[in-house]
């Protein structure tokens, strides 16, 4: 029995969909993965294979065993115009009458709803070569129809749907280039366009995205240069980009420490984001002028207090003054940045995926987690208290530390493990094996502007936290979703309580997990960035006037 995730379609599904219907859901593996992104969604599966459907029932909200060509859509008990996403996978070419099926099922979509499908391309160049050699490529005799680029568009148009994107999938090798060269005389003789022919023959299959809406989406290109990839590219750029790209009309691209400007598609408005970039004055002026000349909205992305790096001030804060606007993580940081640029938006850090709820082992042992960079001044005030607690519970406690060898060496306990700086996947794995996390931050200007990301990462993995009030008291509900300490003595008392009281510890962790699920998943917040970029695009005349006032040299010849 084939059990696989359709990654091509999974990455395109809007993360905030309320109702998703997957026709031909198989064992429900695609839906199960999607619900890690969006646990609030009602994911409905329709599957004609009873054995697969039995497995899917435990993964999805609701599964109906049916052949969609033999059952009336009304009998599915899905309200008309209630569905956000309708997924056909690779099913359409296998149906006897995909035209009628699309017409019937499109009635389930709401006005902004989308249909997703994967469809093989009859014009794929390897298929043409095989056909010329007398070998028609049809390994699956159950396939009823073959489609070309144009007939795919017609298939959806006949159902009253607008195809707003067709992604061609397939590897274009040197042999493909040779194929184009050999057929060029024929293409010219048939009065075909060489570029169109290359496009139509280069795709092995297409991913079709369509909607009921006749209004074309506003197109936006978001390009980011990542200057600090370690530790913050994933949560600040890569995951938001991945989610934003599911919005009709939005295209995202990023590069590490180098970014050639991407050629826009027809009608695309452009955004260029400098992530944690220290711009030197006047060396960066030509690059900024080039972006302005090409009508980019220029955005600075920063998630850390710039006073940590003297270079920002040495260059008169060009990194913020030289952009139209700034995006950041916290309101305290935004308040400081507004001294250099008044147009600042706050996008708090969110989790892109919610792991399955924790099932704790029955063993009595308790594991403490500590993983952070540059925290020596933060953990020193609690070290003596921590070692007293470790000594009191030495037979049932172990500690896992990531990166901080000095902290590790200071722990007066035998059962301890040190992991060097590691991948985020390994970081999550270690955190998931722990019971209590220590989140100390002393009160200073740098720490006050940090985000609560560590807390939401721990909460999502069933780890109860003991944290400082700095940063975390605005997120943690004391005694319900975590514990806050305000002195060394209070740290010692509360850590002992978390170790001794298993039910309290696990209840706090469960409450925190639910809070993250309901409040701090990216699926509920990702559209805010796109909406703000479009708002800033609409206000470009004002932003350009303000930018000219701050840096007139950007507009000089």
Describe this structure in words.
With about 550 residues, the chain is α/β, with parallel strands linked by helices. The chain contains 22 helices and 19 strands. Strand 8, helix 9 and strand 9 (about 250-255) form a beta-alpha-beta unit. It is globular and about 80 Å long. The model has no long low-confidence stretch (mean pLDDT about 95).
Structural class: alpha/beta
Can you give the mean pLDDT? 93
Shape: globular
In total, how many beta strands? 19
Low-pLDDT runs:
none
**Percent helix:** 25-40%
Reported for the largest beta sheet, the result is: 7 strands, mixed
For the termini, the CA-CA separation is 67 Å
Percentage beta strand? 15-25%
Radius of gyration: 27 Å
A few lines on this structure:
This protein is an alpha/beta fold and 557 residues long.
Features:
globular, 7-stranded mixed sheet, alpha/beta, 557 residues, 22 helices
Architecture blueprint of SSEs:
Elements (H helix, E strand, L loop, with lengths): L6 H4 L8 E5 L5 H9 L4 E6 L2 H7 L5 E4 L17 E7 L8 H9 L2 E12 L4 H8 L16 H9 L4 E8 L4 H16 L4 H9 L2 E7 L8 E7 L2 H16 L5 E7 L12 E7 L9 H9 L2 E6 L8 H5 L3 H4 L3 E4 L2 H7 L6 E3 L19 E6 L4 H17 L4 E6 L2 H6 L5 E4 L4 H9 L3 E4 L5 H4 L4 H8 L3 E4 L15 E2 L3 H13 L1 H18 L7 H12 L1 H11 L7
Helix pairs in contact: 7-8, 14-19
